[in-house]
Design goal:
Layout lengths: L25 E4 L2 E7 L5 E2 L2 H10 L19 H30 L2 E2 L10 E2 L1 E3 L10 E3 L12 H20 L10 H12 L11 H31 L1 E9 L5 E9 L2 E9 L7 H15 L4 E5 L4 H13 L4
Parallel strand pairs: 8-11
Antiparallel strand pairs: 1-2, 2-3, 4-5, 6-7, 8-9, 9-10
Helix pairs in contact: 6-7
The protein binds zinc ion.
Zinc ion (ZN) binds next to loops.
Length: 322
């Protein structure tokens, strides 16, 4: 990483906008911000300023704190105090942020009871601010009255909701075109229809990145095949099949479906037991033809192996496929 920042009037390097006190006690080596040299003992920490701070405070901890970090034996106590309070403060803010987030999710309460009393909805969402962290969670005002759909309160509530949604778009630089997508209105409808706010949980960073993505990919593959199916009828298809044996001696038989709009991989069957068996290949081909729709199949391309040829002949014998 190259050095961005300034030497300032003190002649010391400090990254732009950084208030990290670590830079008062260490400086980059060879303009590399990841290699920070300790002012006190000269040790170079290769994990950036974070590592340097750990180097400086390590001696003040007992036990296995910062196990892999070399401790500084020349750092003065007052520097340790400054750094520890900065580091622990930062740690605390991260924990606070998380617990406020958790609390925010729990606080979404819609009191659905049978009284004629006016029900109130209190929702809190976190708001990102560049100021002190205690502003992280700002109370929000959605005072919805279910029994008075046209009331001024509800108009105001809706206005506020729009404003929160707008904040989300502005804060994260999301294209306004997204509001025209089906998924946008679907998402909103889905949230509104979910009737148990106490268990409502938005997807986390990790959910989006791993769990949901995996699931979607699987769905998409089958949707993708479905999209092609529409064209199969219009254009007719060629079924292509071949087989190959992997390093472990397993034989895979692949079936692909080609039409002028493109080729899809339909399936792969473990054919280890069948590959020399014309009758089984014939059966598998039959299944595939059925899956694709016999009327859509213009031709079948196969391997020239005799078992395939034979299976192909059987297929041709009983249908109009060439
Ligand atoms: Zn040191």
């Amino acid at each position: 990483m190259s050095v961005e920042g300034s030497q300032g009037s003190t002649g010391r390097y400090r990254p732009t906008n950084s208030n990290d006190p670590g830079w008062d006690y260490g400086q980059p080596v060879d303009e590399n911000r990841d290699h920070v040299k300790c002012d006190f003992c000269g040790h170079v920490s290769k994990g950036g300023i974070k590592r340097l701070k750990q180097h400086l405070v390590k001696a003040s901890y007992k036990g296995t704190m910062y196990k892999d970090v070399r401790k500084c034996d020349k750092v003065p106590q007052d520097v340790v105090d400054v750094l520890r309070s900065f580091m622990e403060g930062k740690q605390k803010i991260t924990e606070e942020k998380q617990s406020k987030k958790d609390e925010m999710i729990r606080n979404v309460n819609v009191y659905g009871n049978d009284d004629d009393e006016v029900e109130e909805v209190m929702i809190q969402i976190p708001k990102k601010r560049k100021g002190p962290m205690d502003a992280f969670v700002a109370p929000i005002d959605v005072d919805f009255r279910p029994r008075a759909p046209n009331s001024n309160e509800n108009k105001k509530a809706l206005e506020n909701i729009h404003s929160y949604i707008a904040d989300f778009f502005y804060e994260n630089s999301i294209s306004f075109n997204c509001t025209r997508s089906d998924s946008y209105s679907k998402m909103m409808q889905a949230i509104v229809q979910y009737n148990d706010p106490s268990t409502f949980k938005p997807p986390s960073y990790n959910d989006l990145r791993v769990k949901i993505l995996k699931k979607k990919k699987k769905e998409e593959t089958s949707n993708w095949v479905d999209n092609f199916k529409v064209h199969w009828e219009t254009y007719g298809v060629t079924i292509m099949t071949d087989w190959w044996t992997d390093g472990k001696g397993m034989t895979l038989i692949n079936f692909l479906v080609n039409c002028p709009k493109g080729t899809v991989f339909l399936k792969s069957i473990d054919g280890s037991a069948h590959i020399h068996d014309a009758e089984l290949i014939y059966k598998m081909l039959k299944d595939v033809i059925e899956e694709v729709g016999e009327k859509n199949v213009i031709q079948i391309c196969t391997d020239n192996a005799s078992n395939y040829v034979l299976a192909g002949e059987w297929i041709m014998a009983e249908s109009k496929i060439y």
